[in-house]
Amino acid sequence: MHVAVFHYHLQPGGVTDVIIDSVRAVCLQGAKIAGEPITEVTLVCGRDDNVSAVLDRIADDPDGTGHGDKGSGRTITTPHGPVALRADVQPLLDYTPPAESVASAHERSGAIEEWLLGSYAGSLWWVHNYHLGKNPSFTLALCRIAERHGDEQQMLLHVHDFPESARYENLAYIKRIAGESPYPSGPSIRYVAINPHDQAALERAIGGPDARVGLLLNPLPGGEAKSDGLVPDREALVTGLARFAHHEGQRFHEDGPLLLYPVRTIRRKNVLELGAIARLIPRANLITTLPGTSDAERSYSELISFAYSDRRIHGVWGIGRREDEVGLNFETITRGADLIVSSSVQEGFGLTFVNALLWRKPLLARRLDVIDGILPLFDSYPASFYSTFLVPNRSPSITDMGSYLRMRYHERLDAIGDVLPSELEDQLLAEIEDLVSSDTIDFSFLPAQLQLTLLGDLRDTGFGGYVRALNGEIFHSIERALATETVPDTSDTMEALLGYPAYARAFEAIWDAPDADAGGVANSSATTASRNGRFANAQTKLQREFATLSRLRLLLGPLDHDH
Description:
This protein is of the alpha/beta class and 563 residues long. The protein is 39% helix and 15% strand.
């Protein structure tokens, strides 16, 4: 069987890594689709960047030795026989401008529909984040094809993120172009989520538990948990980090602990919170690796850069992919870190948590419900999860932030009023009032500029001591983690849950399920009017699932330089 794997791009990032390892997993393990073996895979994306490198990684030739460019065929050599691998770059799939006209978007959608059916009819379409609001013309094309060909055209819609989950700008764009409920239905269409929370939400949205909504936990990078136990030269590591920090005008403590946050500095990663926590640990260094590069995240990333250059955060920012400038590499930094940390408020899977296990490093992270599926991995492991990082609503430079936050959150609600179902507004208004009326507030509910102000206030030792006392358990956990001498090897447990064999079994199970016309949701649920079409109320139901104040944080909204 031929499998066409779709995504907007294959640039470095989380979804690209999942595509690489998931394709390798199903091919190397000989996974079948309803009994049919996979014989050919085509990666289909909207831009050239990084495509050749991805092909080489899937073909297990990371140096590109002996292979050509993105247009040349590769072969995945498996114990079950060779699998042909190639790429198809189609600019129609690239990101599109949200301000475009409906007419232009619909014209593009028609061209995509014609191209899909002309080029890939009869293949399995494995589509990643098909409805995120990056290209609603593509989403609409899939929905229209489902309406006419949902009986025979197999689609696996792989949902990493939901536009209904606080991505309100994306959601508005999707609604304007693709219409309500971009959730196609049909006997040959399957959905998968990447964590149990999202799987349950999607099941409820399309009418109840149903075998067509599967769960594919992200596979381990490389398919297995490998650790040779080597420890880098600490002196060389610290010297390299110090050189980089000096060159960038950042403050680095050569005798301090190394707290590693290996992420892009985008809003949902909530980097300033870890900056505040690290600032309250004597001589601690927060190492944050990569800048945010998209138009939506660039302003926030620049704010983080300023926080480091202004010495409000101590450590290193932006060393990712520049390690060689100071004689280091990413592996050296991960091996030499004292603690892996995460303050992210929104994740699809939680790769940073799994990486801590792979690197055999203690972990401190904000607790997220999406990690329920991997929590067993942390039994008897030096990992601590915190729910809140509290700060008072007054500080040396802020008299009372409550009234200001009330105004800003009401503005946030007004800005998304056309997208949010009206019945949810009262619920959110009540949550806002509870939030702003308290003497303390969770740091993650503050807008980024206010977070930056509080970081500056932590220079006041009295204020800093009070904040530390408010969050005593977090700092006790860090002290315990930094004192950890032996970190257990969880390789066997990780491979059993997240290795390639486990992934391939879960993939096969998706196709073992009965079709919807044999008693599944499409026949039993009132959420869809026809056998092929769309689940009519799915989008509204998902908005109710995700319309909580935690997903409406000012941190996640546009960065407003006027406030």
